Amino acid sequence: MTYPQQLETALAQLAATGIMKSNYAPPLFRILWRMGVYARPPHFASFASNFLLTGAWFGIAWGAIMWLFVWSGTGKTPLVAAVTALAAGVLFGLCMASYYRYGARKHKLPEWSQIPAELSN
Question: Quick check: 9 and 119 in contact, CB under 8 A?
Fold first, then answer.
């Protein structure tokens, strides 16, 4: 099974669980898919990959916004701003990875490698 077929099947399974589309296909992942990045939907991704992807995205985006609109005018040093953004990214990444892992277990979703087998059953 090709990746696009596997992704389509996984998204159909997620839709059947009643999870909102904005939750199982968040904007960050839809952008990655349009760019041709073979990223698993977050409920099928590993804890580590969800932690790294969501944490890095949030830490960079939030840190940049805070620097532009708040921190640069308060005299905060770039090092302190970077450490603060890193801490926020780590916290956000842990929360999101835990949330997606909980959702996958709650809805008894199969492993990514088992998705083609689910079709034949």
Answer: yes
Where do the DSSP E strands lie in 25-73? Answer: none
- Amino acid identity at 70: V
Q: Which of 68, 58, 64, 26 is nearest to 45 (CA)?
A: 26
Task: Report the alpha-carbon distance of residue 77 to residue 22 in Å, rounded.
Answer: 36
Residue 37 φ/ψ region, left for φ over 0, alpha for ψ in the -120 to 50 degree band, beta for the rest: beta
Spell out the residues 6+ positions from residue 89 whose beta carbon is closer than 8 angstroms to its own.
Answer: 55, 56, 58, 59, 60, 62, 63
Query: What pLDDT is recorded for position 1?
Result: 80
For residue range 32-52, what is the model confidence (pLDDT) as tens digits?
999 999 999 999 999 999 999
Q: Decide if pLDDT at 110 tops 60.
A: yes
Q: How far apart are CA 50 and CA 79, in angstroms?
A: 26
pLDDT tens for each residue of 51-83? 999 999 999 999 999 999 999 999 899 999 999
